[in-house]
Write a structure and sequence with these properties.
This protein has 288 residues and is an alpha/beta fold. It contains seven helices and 15 strands. The chain has a domain of 85 residues.
Length: 288
C-alpha cells in the first residue's frame, strides 16, 4: 500500500520539476503542486511512458493509486490512438517561457482533456481568462467537464484558426505546426507571446506525430521577434488540417543544420528568398 498522500506527491513532483527543468515561475510550480492530474485522466491503472521508454511499449502502473501519475511521465488518454497526456516538465518549461501572470488572457490550442489548461488557469487565476480549443470533439467534451471548476476557462471544439479572441497575452499551440499562422499573430496584444512547436513527420514514426523544435514569438508593435527554445527536440501530435507539407523540406534542413536556432523574427511582408530567410514562404517567413 502506497502511504504517500496525493497532495504530497504533487508537491514533490512540482519541486523536482522546479529544479530539474529550471522553472523560474512560482505560479507554474504552485499549479503543478495544486491541480490534481488524475482528475483529467481515465481511471487507473494507467499506461505510462517515461524518457527511457521512448518509442517503446508503455508500462502499466501497479494499481490505481493517484500517486502513480505524479512522476515526470506521459500518461495514456487513449492508447489505441497513441494519445498521451505529456510529461509535465515539458509543459512547465513552455508555461515558464510564456511568462504567464495573474489576470492574463491566454489561448490554449490543443487542450486535450484539460490538465495543462488547468495549470494555465491556476496561474492566471479567476481574474484572467483562458480560451481552450480542441479539434477532437470527444476530448473537448471531456475537457469541458473536467474544467467546470474553473469558470474563467471557456472550452470549444476547433482547430485553432477561427474565432480566436483578440488582445490576448499568450497563445500556446499544443500540437506540431509547419509554420506560424497570421491569425495567431493577429490575436496577440503588444508584447504578447506565442509558443508553437514546429515539427516534421518522419518515416517510421507513429501516424500523426512529428518531431521538431519549439519557437517563441513575441509581438513588438508591428514586428514579431522570434527565437527557438534551445536544441532539445520535441515529439508531439501534429495540428490537423492546417499544416503545409511544402514547408517540410525547408523546416527539416533548418532543424538539422542549426538554422532554426538563428531565427530572430517572423516576417509578414511579401518578399523573395533572401540570404537571411531560414524557412521561407511569401508573407510568412522565419528570418535570421
Amino acid at each position: 500500500m502506497n502511504a504517500i498522500a496525493p497532495s504530497d506527491a504533487r508537491r514533490f513532483l512540482a519541486e523536482e520539476i522546479r529544479v530539474t527543468a529550471n522553472i523560474r515561475s512560482p505560479g507554474v510550480i504552485d499549479a503543478l503542486a495544486t491541480v490534481p492530474r488524475e482528475r483529467f485522466l481515465p481511471p487507473g491503472p494507467w499506461e505510462i511512458r517515461g524518457t527511457g521508454d521512448a518509442g517503446g511499449t508503455p508500462r502499466r502502473t501497479e494499481d490505481a493509486d493517484p500517486t502513480r501519475v505524479y512522476h515526470d511521465v506521459s500518461v495514456a488518454i487513449d492508447p489505441a490512438r497513441n494519445l498521451f497526456n505529456g510529461q509535465p516538465s515539458l509543459i512547465a518549461r513552455w508555461l515558464d517561457d510564456l511568462q504567464l501572470a495573474p489576470g492574463q488572457r491566454v489561448v490554449h490550442i490543443g487542450c486535450g482533456t484539460g490538465y495543462f489548461t488547468a495549470l494555465i488557469a491556476h496561474v492566471v487565476g479567476p481574474t484572467g481568462h483562458v480560451a481552450a480549443i480542441e479539434v477532437d470533439e470527444e476530448l473537448a467534451d471531456r475537457a469541458r467537464v473536467n474544467l467546470c471548476r474553473h469558470p474563467w476557462v471557456h472550452v470549444r471544439p476547433g482547430n485553432g484558426t477561427t474565432g480566436l479572441p483578440s488582445d490576448v497575452d499568450a497563445i500556446l499551440v499544443h500540437a506540431g505546426a509547419t509554420h506560424v499562422l497570421d491569425m495567431w499573430l493577429d490575436a496577440l496584444t503588444d508584447r504578447g507571446r506565442l509558443l508553437v512547436p514546429l515539427t516534421v513527420e518522419f518515416p517510421g514514426m507513429p501516424t500523426g506525430i512529428g518531431k521538431g523544435m519549439t519557437l517563441l514569438v513575441t509581438r513588438s508593435g508591428s514586428e514579431w521577434q522570434a527565437r527557438a527554445l534551445g536544441a532539445m527536440p520535441v515529439a508531439i501530435y501534429s495540428l490537423r488540417d492546417i499544416r503545409d507539407p511544402g514547408r517540410g523540406p525547408q523546416l527539416m534542413q533548418a532543424m538539422t543544420t542549426g538554422g532554426l536556432l538563428k531565427v530572430m523574427r517572423r516576417r509578414r511582408d511579401k518578399h523573395d528568398l533572401e540570404a537571411s530567410c531560414v524557412v521561407h514562404g511569401r508573407g510568412s517567413c522565419l528570418s535570421a
